[in-house]
Write a structure and sequence with these properties.
2 copies of one chain form a homodimer. Chain A is an alpha/beta fold. Chain A has 2 domains: about 190 residues, Rossmann fold (3-Layer(aba) Sandwich); about 120 residues, Dehydroquinate synthase-like, alpha domain, CATH 1.20.1090.10. The first copy, chain A, is about 45% helix and about 15% strand. The first copy, chain A, has 16 helices and 11 strands. Chain A has a 7-stranded mixed beta sheet, sandwiched between helices. Chains A and B meet through helix 3 and strand 8 of A and helix 3 and strand 8 of B.
Chain lengths: ~375, ~375
């Protein structure tokens, strides 16, 4: 088992002290990336000004049928590429459509792509911008809780191929990312549930204090108060998630070390479940929530996750109403699952690795010490308490 | 007209003093990239060792039907993706095939793509490697004169879309690039002609001395001695081309400044001619050679290129047997040409720019000061002497 020399970076536990007025600046690799957490959606003028885009340069707005109404509030006259919504649209065909429309409006390297939507739209737009003429300008307006807490920050772009999530992609951060709390008011409940799972994950990686903050949102989540007043209830939690992810990505922007990989807590099992159930069947968060419990079981079996810690994480996930039992009700065939697991991108020297919670945070464990038998027991639910 | 503050970087004119034993190390952005100029093709063992690739990691060789025989000399047992040859293959379908075969052989982020061929194969393999799981290992074996003097060095990757050359691409240098002079013995004469144009361009950007070296190769080029004994005749010229391009790219790896853009001498007119004639009809070098003469005419009209300099460049290009007259015999419709020219990637703030030779090297000129009428005169041959 491999543990990073110092699992806790310098900023750990200092996050609450460095809160700002909703504006957060990161540098991913050599690329500056700013996040703006505000009540309202930004105007096109604000986006153009902050991204230093010349008024002569071409702009293409990209959204899906769900976020078209938000896009119209940003601009009614600028060229807009409206895609169908859903994970099944996350393919080369959508990228080609974005690129074709950019070409038609004469967008050059100094032009700007603005992606307005959840993770599918921001990942697709970011990928298209990163390869269009070898890189054009990019801003994002993240409109889902999952996007704000995960997809929109950190520069991972991509689309699915051969049934594998984000098999094709780049590291290419947006210069500006806007998160508007008011748009969460119209978010469907399934999307809330998907996003909350990433918030729970962030809390596990951050601190007992953040985990307490997540716990305190359970009732307002279940009775709908979060959705009615997201500006009141969600600002601090989203700020923490952005800061935790942002600082971790700054430490290890291209996931060549172990720091960024910790963000994959619950994702090895989760992605495999998404693939095995058929991409788009389960929401990403539902799959990750289920995957985190499997990670706890794995960590316990390896003696890394203290039983009380595993119980606490499992209890929170169950309280939010996620499916926790193994085998998952949508998992038809364990061999499909194992194959998807083995195709995981996070391989080094041909070896899988897993993130499991430890007493305070989480660590990366090489699959060297994990037998296939143990994985099968976990997926089948033989280790459940 | 915009001129860079100091058009001559520190290494200019010092290149002959820093010749090494055929091994050249560059750093493009933050990525190290080494070029090895040798008589023979490298063995697979050499490639794996030099690129620090674990013996446990998966490897995919990529070539086309022309370079399959070279690939078999490198390895007979490793998985190989053989594409059809030609510029028309430079599309998403080919990238998808490379990615699909990589996935089938279980290639992970620590795996290695080895592209063996001319510019089409090295650009396609480099693009696939740069987006596969957001980036896997990459080595190139460049097998054409054009590839050695241009495509393989400097990290530009990509493929054609909507009839535009390299509309989709990334900046992603190979860690190791091998140039084997012996493979040039089997290079068809059209490929020799394509590569020599880039060598002439390099000489124009370098020095009178390199231009003299190019002139001295005219007879051995025309009587076939270059092709019979490339190891004897071509080593110094290829070394100079690699060094000139490598140092220029190091100065400006992502073409955000003006230095790398100078390498596009002849390319704005050349790319537009390639597009207007139909991609794959003309060789890249033939188009660039014709484009360089147009750049001289433009430079003269603007008072930047001294007439004696324009005459010398035109004379060398004509001596090598390139089509020099305007309009080009394959150009059917000037409007298609102008449209392709306006779609050029090298736009800033919606403006085209052109590279034109000056007394010693070349400079970048904004299209602000160039009227459409002047461009039409040049393309139609109205300014020819």
């Amino acid at each position: 088992m491999k543990r990073p020399p110092s699992p806790y970076p310098f900023w750990y536990r200092k996050i609450p002290e460095i809160y700002t007025n909703g504006n957060y600046s990161f540098t991913f690799g050599q690329t500056p990336s700013q996040v703006h957490i505000e009540e309202q959606i930004p105007s096109l003028e604000t986006i153009l000004k902050e991204s230093n885009t010349s008024s002569a340069a071409a702009v293409l707005l990209v959204c899906d049928t769900h976020t078209e109404y938000i896009t119209k509030k940003i601009s009614r006259n600028r060229p807009t590429c409206v895609l169908e919504s859903g994970e099944t649209q996350k393919n080369w065909g959508s990228v080609e459509r974005i690129i074709t429309e950019a070409r038609e409006v004469g967008l050059g390297r100094d032009g700007l792509f603005i992606g307005i939507g959840g993770g599918v739209i921001t990942d697709l737009t970011s990928f298209a911008a990163s390869v269009y003429m070898r890189g054009a300008g990019l801003c994002l307006v993240s409109t889902t809780l999952l996007g704000m807490t995960d997809a929109a920050v950190g520069g991972k772009t991509g689309f699915d191929l051969l049934g594998i999530k984000n098999l094709v992609g780049t590291f290419s951060p947006a210069s500006h990312i806007y998160m508007s709390l008011e748009v969460l008011k119209t978010l469907p409940s399934r999307e809330w549930k998907s996003g909350m799972a990433e918030l729970i994950k962030t809390a596990v990686l951050d601190s007992a204090e953040t985990l307490d903050l997540v716990k305190s949102k359970k009732m307002p989540f279940l009775d709908g108060a979060l959705a009615r007043e997201p500006g009141l209830h969600m600002k601090e939690l989203i700020e923490r998630a952005v800061l935790v992810k942002g600082r971790m990505v700054e430490t290890d922007p291209r996931e060549t070390g172990t720091e960024r990989a910790l963000l994959n807590l619950g994702h090895s099992f989760g992605h495999a479940l998404e693939s095995a159930a058929g991409l788009g069947t389960l929401s990403h968060g539902e799959a990750v929530a289920w995957g985190m419990i499997r990670a706890c079981e794995l960590g316990q079996a390896l003696g890394i996750t203290p039983p009380a810690r595993a119980r606490e994480i499992t209890k929170i996930i169950a309280a939010y109403g996620y499916e926790t039992a193994a085998p998952h009700s949508l998992l038809k065939d364990i061999r499909t699952f194992i194959k998807a697991l083995e195709g995981d991108k996070k391989k080094k020297a041909g070896k899988l690795s897993f993130v499991v919670p430890d007493a305070e945070r989480a660590v990366l464990v090489s699959a060297d010490i994990i037998g296939l038998r143990l994985l099968e027991q976990i997926i089948n639910g033989d280790l459940q308490q």
